[in-house]
Specification:
By secondary structure, the chain is an alpha/beta fold. It has 3 domains: 80 residues, Arc Repressor Mutant, subunit A (Orthogonal Bundle), CATH 1.10.10; 92 residues, Periplasmic binding protein-like II (D-Maltodextrin-Binding Protein, domain 2, 3-Layer(aba) Sandwich), CATH 3.40.190; 100 residues, D-Maltodextrin-Binding Protein, domain 2 (3-Layer(aba) Sandwich), CATH 3.40.190. It contains 10 helices and 12 strands. The strands form 3 sheets. Strands 4-3-5-12-6 form a 5-stranded mixed sheet, with helices on one face. InterPro entries: LysR-type_TF_proteobact-type, LysR_HTH_N, LysR_subst-bd, WH-like_DNA-bd_sf, WH_DNA-bd_sf. Belongs to the LysR transcriptional regulatory family. Keywords: DNA-binding, Transcription, Transcription regulation.
């Protein structure tokens, strides 16, 4: 007698949602929309004649019977994957995710964290291009564009994921040579500037009520990451964005000599073309950025 099987796509959606505890994460894993996962689960519930999840607002939880069902079918999916691998057919097709982001952000925040994303998504190749140009000036289309914001661009869906403030930072060795007990002591130091961000030091000094302060010297670099590296090397004092120097502060490569004032800064945001907003892989990377940003 031919065995009676439930719809396999619906079963796959249920297994992912039950294992991950989230329709949204299941959709990202299966490269579909959360709505598609919900539809498959409802189809399976209708086929079985019983609910699989307790739905409470945006949260879902397996019913006791569904939990037992998941424990029974979960190993079968693993056996199917192993059998397919032994047969010589790739389990998943490799995908490329195209990301465009500012150079300093990429160097100091994104690259040190990419290994974590790659560990969970070995089938995904992340292609990163650096640029500070406006969205409309980009010559190529990208899956995700990272820029400051929040801004509104026609044809793009925007979501913020990382906030920061700016305040002076320097190396511990610099403080040993010439202490900074108060902002007025900056008169004995070299201030490090970035040509694309000329207002950072003037705005901070004005906030500290030292608009007329004249430092011992000044150096200007054309890239922000060079300015920060000069601070790490003990050349002078830079205005540090808290998100981008967090790892250096934690490792002791940089210190913040003053508690404030802190200059507010624009958030980092993801901009995704509207036609790609339902792509599961793009949503998965976007959600990962948001989790990493919340922990920074």
């Amino acid at each position: 007698m031919k065995p009676v099987l439930p719809p396999l796509n619906a079963l796959r959606a249920f297994e992912a949602a039950g294992r991950l505890g989230s329709f949204k994460e299941a959709a990202a894993e299966l490269h579909v929309t959360p709505g598609a996962v919900s539809q498959h689960v409802r189809l399976l519930e209708a086929w079985l004649g019983a609910p699989l999840f307790d739905r409470q607002n945006r949260r879902v939880a397996l019913t006791p019977a569904a939990q037992a069902y998941l424990e029974a079918i979960g190993p079968l999916f693993e056996q199917l994957a192993q059998a397919t691998a032994r047969y010589g057919v790739p389990q998943t097709a490799s995908r490329t995710l195209s990301v465009n982001a500012p150079a300093t952000f990429t160097l100091r925040w994104l690259v040190p964290r990419l290994a974590k994303f790659r560990a969970g998504h070995p089938d995904v190749e992340v292609k990163v291009e650096t640029s500070n140009g406006p969205l409309e000036s980009l010559s190529e289309e990208h899956d995700i564009i990272i820029r400051g914001g929040p801004d509104t661009f026609y044809g793009y869906a925007m979501r913020p994921f990382l906030t920061e403030e700016r305040l002076p930072v320097c190396s511990p060795a610099l403080l040993q040579r010439a202490p900074l007990r108060s902002p007025g002591d900056l008169r004995q130091h070299t201030l490090l500037h970035t040509s694309s961000l000329p207002r950072l030091w003037p705005d901070w000094l004005a906030s500290a009520r030292l608009a007329d302060l004249r430092p011992a010297a000044a150096l200007t670099f054309d890239h922000f990451y060079l300015t920060l590296q000069a601070a790490i090397d003990g050349i002078g004092v830079a205005m540090g964005p808290t998100a981008l120097v967090a790892d250096d502060l934690a490792a002791g490569r940089l210190v913040t000599p003053f508690a404030g004032p802190r200059l507010p800064s624009r958030s980092y945001c993801t901009y995704v073309p509207d036609e790609k907003s339902g792509d599961g892989l793009i949503e998965r990377f976007r959600s990962w950025l948001e989790r990493e940003g919340a922990g920074s």
